[in-house]
Each structure stands twice: as structure tokens, then as C-alpha cells.
UniProtKB/TrEMBL annotation:
<dbReference type="InterPro" id="IPR036291">
    <property type="entry name" value="NAD(P)-bd_dom_sf"/>
</dbReference>
<dbReference type="Pfam" id="PF00106">
    <property type="entry name" value="adh_short"/>
</dbReference>
<keyword id="KW-0560">Oxidoreductase</keyword>
<dbReference type="InterPro" id="IPR051122">
    <property type="entry name" value="SDR_DHRS6-like"/>
</dbReference>
<dbReference type="InterPro" id="IPR002347">
    <property type="entry name" value="SDR_fam"/>
</dbReference>
<comment type="similarity">
    <text>Belongs to the short-chain dehydrogenases/reductases (SDR) family.</text>
</comment>
<protein>
    <submittedName>
        <fullName>SDR family NAD(P)-dependent oxidoreductase</fullName>
    </submittedName>
</protein>
Length: 264
């Protein structure tokens, strides 16, 4: 995918992985539109970029807000969605509202963004879409029993990305799944603020934090990996490829050992 001189919209670019992606795309020569619900953090990201960058506010859970933004972007070559939410709590504590909250943040933000900006992407040759998944959304063994919201919705996003890739392949629109794992960011903090707004619960930024002592990859590094992935037309971009491959092979072995099959 050609990047230099093109325009990218990064939704969720105010911090974390989104900011790292915006920085890397800016360095690769793109005009980056920094979009986030929080205008303060969006501007902080914009201040780190070249003068080509623009800063906008958008609510990625609202199709109306996305449509308003789309009306202000005449040309778009690359759509990147990094919005998400995490919570960690036992299954029997989860209400329908909790499930809807996670579904909206981890799945529908991508679905709505694609629906909104696909017409603009179709007008450009060699355009692309990047959605942000997680290792929790892959078939890895030993999932966290308290991570149902995050794991379930990230699995759904993985499935959606694969279908989207197949649907757009004939149009030459590149679809990439970014799978960060152990990357610096503040997902737990932004998720806590979102839960407080949604449910009125006390602010708890501890839930969903990275395990203590875990070595984290700087967010700009995953952004640089994404740039390489786009240039090389890769389907997935991840910072733990060998580990994830081994874990998925283990899962396939488990499938073979413990599956009852019916011959037709």
C-alpha cells in the first residue's frame, strides 16, 4: 500500500495504541486526521505531529457523529479504528448493560466507522482499513475467566474483520487486523471513565491493567509495525507473532484431541 502523501483517519488517536499509530503514520508521510472523543488528548496527539495533521472530535459509538465527521473529509485513503473498552469481572456479575457496553465499544465502533467511511475509501485506488483486535480475540488456550466481555467481543471483531476482508478483496481495499499485545497505553483508564459515565459506578482504573512487571512495547513501535504491514500488504500486525503462532497450534492440537466428528 502506498502511504506517502495520502490521508489517514485514526479514530481513538488521543492516547495509547491510537496515538502510536498516528505518530508512525505521520512519520511515514501521511496527512493524519486525529479523532477522539476527548478533545484534550486528541490535541495533545496533534501537537506531536507535523503541520499536515488535523485534530477533530468524534463519538465513535454514534453514527450521526461519524457521519458529521465524514462530511468534513473530502478525500480518505486509510481508515484506522483503535477504539475499545475493557473490564474484568466474574461472569455472574455481568448484566445486559455490561454486555451492550462492551459490544458497542469493541465491535460496533468498527462496524459503524466502516459503514460511514467506506464510500470515501471506494473512491480511492489502493485504500485500506485497519481495525484493532487483541490476543484475547484469537483462539488461545487458558483465557482469563474474568475477561468474558473483552474476549468475546474481540473474537467477534476478529470474525468481522475476516468477513470484511473477503467482501472487499475484489475492490482492492486492503483490510488489516492490528493485534497489539502488551503495548503501553491507557485502555484501563479510558475504560474506567467510560464505565463511570455509562453505569455511574465509582472510577476504578485498576481493572484491566497490564499484569505487574510485564514488559510493555512502546505504542509508537506497534505503529511502526503497522506501517510496515500496510506497505507489505499483511493481513495481521502483531508484536508477539511467534508466541501467538505457538499458542494457536496448541489450540488446534486441543481441537484434534477433544472434538467428536461426524463423517458425511
Amino acid at each position: 500500500m502506498e502511504l506517502t502523501g495520502r490521508t489517514a483517519l485514526v479514530i481513538g488517536a488521543g492516547s495509547g495504541v491510537g496515538r502510536g499509530v498516528a505518530l508512525a503514520l505521520d512519520r511515514a508521510g501521511l496527512s493524519v486526521i486525529v479523532a477522539d472523543l476527548d478533545p484534550v488528548t486528541a490535541q495533545q496527539t496533534g501537537d506531536l505531529l507535523s503541520e499536515r495533521a488535523q485534530v477533530v472530535q468524534v463519538d465513535a459509538t454514534s453514527q450521526a457523529s461519524l457521519a458529521t465527521l465524514a462530511s468534513r473529509i473530502p478525500v480518505l485513503h486509510l481508515l484506522v479504528v483503535t477504539v475499545g473498552g475493557i473490564d474484568v469481572r466474574p461472569l455472574d456479575e455481568l448484566t445486559e448493560a455490561h454486555w451492550q457496553w462492551a459490544w458497542n465499544l469493541n465491535v460496533m465502533t468498527s462496524v459503524l466507522a466502516v459503514q460511514t467511511f467506506l464510500p470515501a475509501l471506494r473512491q480511492q485506488r489502493g485504500s485500506g482499513i485497519v481495525l484493532t483486535g487483541s490476543g484475547s480475540g484469537l483462539n488461545l488456550p487458558d483465557p482469563d475467566p474474568n475477561a468474558a466481555l473483552y474476549a468475546t467481543t474481540k473474537h467477534a471483531l476478529t470474525g468481522y474483520t475476516g468477513v470484511l476482508r473477503a467482501a472487499l478483496a475484489s475492490e482492492g481495499i486492503q483490510v488489516t487486523l492490528l493485534v497489539p499485545s502488551g503495548v503501553e497505553g491507557n485502555l484501563a483508564a479510558t475504560s474506567a471513565r467510560s464505565r463511570t459515565a455509562a453505569f455511574g459506578e465509582a472510577l476504578d482504573e485498576a481493572r484491566g491493567q497490564q499484569p505487574p512487571g510485564r514488559r510493555l512495547l512502546p505504542a509508537p513501535a506497534i505503529g511502526e509495525a503497522l506501517v510496515r504491514g500496510l506497505q507489505e500488504n499483511r493481513t495481521f500486525v502483531n508484536n508477539r507473532g511467534a508466541d501467538f503462532h505457538a499458542a494457536m497450534v496448541e489450540w488446534l492440537d486441543e481441537w484434534q484431541r477433544n472434538t467428536v466428528t461426524v463423517s458425511t
